[in-house]
Write a structure and sequence with these properties.
By secondary structure, the protein is of the alpha/beta class. Helix content is about 35%, strand content about 15%. Bound molecules: S-adenosylmethionine.
């Protein structure tokens, strides 16, 4: 893949954004030529939206569930006039929020560095802050889960969403410690760290997997992803493009399985459908997963685990997908939230 797509270097608003968009260059190269109306379902600091507008999109509808992300864009979004429309909401409702046939949809999953870097949002185990982790700033917080959920539910979250092998040990330690409520990120990080071996140089912080798991639970991220992919399928025109950037293996597996099933390349299909049913592809896969190149890694260490998948919508009618068929972890299938 050639990474020669234009970046919005000459866009004055780009200099104001504190966030370096991950994988923007391969994304723009992969979806070129960019035309028509796009939805950016994870607007964040607006790096993708600006990139798409600079590359030729006639309009971008930016969606984010974090009111602060949209508030921060107020200073520059008006420079684009009606070409940039911002909407507060979740990408699981992408089709109803955009309410028009789309030429493209991008999703850049997870939290933004803006969110992680603000200790008061409670995403970071490196800086002390309230144990919050709510992207939307509403609903159940990480402290609510940690202090109220049964031990077995906490263990399931850590195991299924963080692939944490010490999930039961950590859940037990949390329940023991919460006699004095656990209200801050550093206190939780310390409780988790005591359950695990001291990391060797170069290894990640022992609380990394537990914090990822709790964040996913608080924001119902996997249910959002499964519903968001369905919503994108409904919203895209025939020929429209879907591009998704993921940051960890469970997330990438869901996207990969969705695209396999929706493109008729599901080797397990006979488990779910009668052999006589010939699935009509709703997407054509445009490439295998694309990872960061050396330039990107040098610019942006956060891109280390990023994967980009791109597919083109066909004219086949949209269908709703069974979360079990695309490996959505059990908790989200049961609709815990
Ligand atoms: C990795 S950042 C996106 C950064 C963006 N591509 C940019 O260039 O600035 C992810 C953003 O998506 C938002 N987000 C995550 N899940 C969401 C969901 N289900 N619906 C809407 N927004 C979501 C987060 O609040 C965050 O602002």
């Amino acid at each position: 893949m050639e990474h020669n797509a234009p970046l919005p270097d000459s866009d004055p608003s780009a200099r104001r954004a504190p966030h370096i968009p991950v994988m923007l260059r391969p994304l723009l190269a992969g979806v070129a030529p960019v035309t028509g109306i796009w939805a950016d379902g994870t607007f964040g600091a607006g790096g993708y939206a600006r990139g798409l507008l600079a590359a030729g999109a006639t309009k971008v509808i930016g969606i984010d569930r974090d009111p602060l992300a949209l508030q921060l864009a107020e200073g520059w979004a008006a420079d684009y006039g009606p070409r940039l429309e911002l909407t507060l909401g979740t990408f699981s409702d992408l089709d109803t929020l955009t309410n028009q046939p789309l030429d493209g949809v991008v999703l850049d999953l997870g939290v933004s560095s803006m969110q992680i870097d603000q200790p008061e949002r409670g995403f970071s185990f490196q800086k002390d802050g309230p144990l919050d982790m709510r992207m939307s700033q509403s609903g159940e917080s990480a402290a609510d889960i940690v202090n109220r959920a049964p031990e077995s539910a906490i263990a399931d979250i850590l195991y299924l969403y963080g692939e944490e092998r010490a999930s039961r040990r950590i859940a037990r330690a949390i329940v023991e410690a919460r006699k004095d409520p656990i209200l801050t990120t550093l206190r939780l990080a310390e409780i988790v760290a005591k359950c695990l071996p001291r990391p060797k140089p170069g290894q990640s912080h022992p609380a990394t997997r537990s914090f990822q798991a709790l964040r996913i639970a608080v924001n119902a991220e996997f249910a959002q992803l499964a519903q968001g992919l369905d919503a994108a399928e409904r919203a895209l025109k025939p020929g429209g493009l879907l591009a998704v950037v993921t940051f960890h293996s469970i997330e990438d597996r869901i996207v990969k399985r969705f695209l396999q099933v929706a493109s008729g390349q599901d080797s397990n299909a006979n488990r779910y459908a009668p052999a006589t049913t010939q699935a009509i592809p709703r997407f054509d896969l445009l490439s295998k997963a694309i990872g960061p190149d050396d330039d990107e890694l040098a610019d942006n260490p956060r891109a280390r685990s990023a994967k980009l998948r791109i597919a083109r919508r066909t004219a086949a009618p949209a269908q709703s997908i069974d979360p079990a068929q695309i490996d959505v972890p059990l908790l989200d299938r049961k609709g815990r939230r």
